[in-house]
């Protein structure tokens, strides 16, 4: 497919990797954080770290919404799923996320009506087809996914579907980046900015990172050539002492974002004063709730939720890994107590979590070589 | 989309969504959307699209009202969130 294949061209990839090797300053260490879980996944899948000189270190950021969801929110959602009148719907990845009493899939095995959907619009359709049931959509994700939830709620209102509601866990990427920048042990030189979040919010909102913190940001696509080009752009900025927001992914990311999507977000959602992120703690203004005008479709209003709080085991070092202070395999639990089959911490839960990605693509290689 | 798509989907077939899913792997909320080509424009702000492996689906184009047949869109959970712009690239 056009715009995919050319960004996997081995000759161009090699050429860009060579150029990176040529421009780096040998005695300097570059710590670059890719904010988004999709980038983490691509970096491991294509083995990009192996194409880079040793003094470029890629650090994995908090951009996996399943991973940063506190277990208590999962328990709240599952408390709703357990109600007999409810059809509980969620994306595929959520199905395997454990609450204290198991995952949505396990709840289904015990008789709860839990269904996987590909889009919240499918959940709304389910509600119109089952007027005597309550259909709840467990919404999760950054600004990439929030527009589809917003669109669904706008449709629910205009179609007057009153047996549909949303349990909202949408989070915002910028407050999380700010929390990482503000953390005292922060040691990041520059950021690979999320690609598809930015199709919605644009490149402009990242300017504070360059202006206030003096760190360069390059918004990047997901193909190997995209990521290498973005790394090259960051290295050049760092070498020249510049800190700017650059847009490697201009073919889909407009500087000002997607206006109709932003309008829908503003119409449907308000910012919560604070929200808990697994591994990072409470971050102010970092998540979305439904506006009061949409209270009729808010599952947190419709059903009383217990408001569960669960803390991760003390030995789990997810916070340090999320902030890029520790590589995944240096956590004491990595690969022992904590594996993708039995995740203890947040970052093992989804395939895009830094620990799970590391486990699949590096650990597997290492054990094969033993 | 061919190689990576296969690799991803064989790893986690349970995540590939229902019949009309276009996602090559994790369908959740990760920051990666799926590039598709517009085949037909339908009423009610919908478009019939096809991904790199030939799977087709109807998607909502409320947020990309400028979409035309032949355009490449990025689709995230059943909703197009961006249109590929050759001039900007
Ligand atoms: S190995 Fe497990 S506990 Fe340790 S940081 Fe990773 S997800 Fe958290």
Automatic annotation (TrEMBL), chain A:
Entry's transmembrane regions: none
InterPro entries registered for this protein in UniProt: Hyd_form_HypD, HypD_1, HypD_2_sf
Superkingdom of origin organism: Bacteria
UniProt record, GO biological process: protein maturation
UniProt GO molecular function: 4 iron, 4 sulfur cluster binding; carbon monoxide binding; iron ion binding
Keywords: Iron, Metal-binding
Pfam family, one: HypD
Family of the protein in this entry: Belongs to the HypD family.
UniProt name for this protein: Hydrogenase maturation protein HypD
Organism annotation: Pyrinomonas methylaliphatogenes
UniProtKB/TrEMBL annotation, chain B:
InterPro entries linked to this entry: Hydrogenase_HupF/HypC (IPR001109)
Top-level taxon of the source organism: Bacteria
Region (Disordered): 1-22
Family (UniProt): Belongs to the HupF/HypC family.
Record-given protein name: Hydrogenase maturation factor
Organism: Pyrinomonas methylaliphatogenes
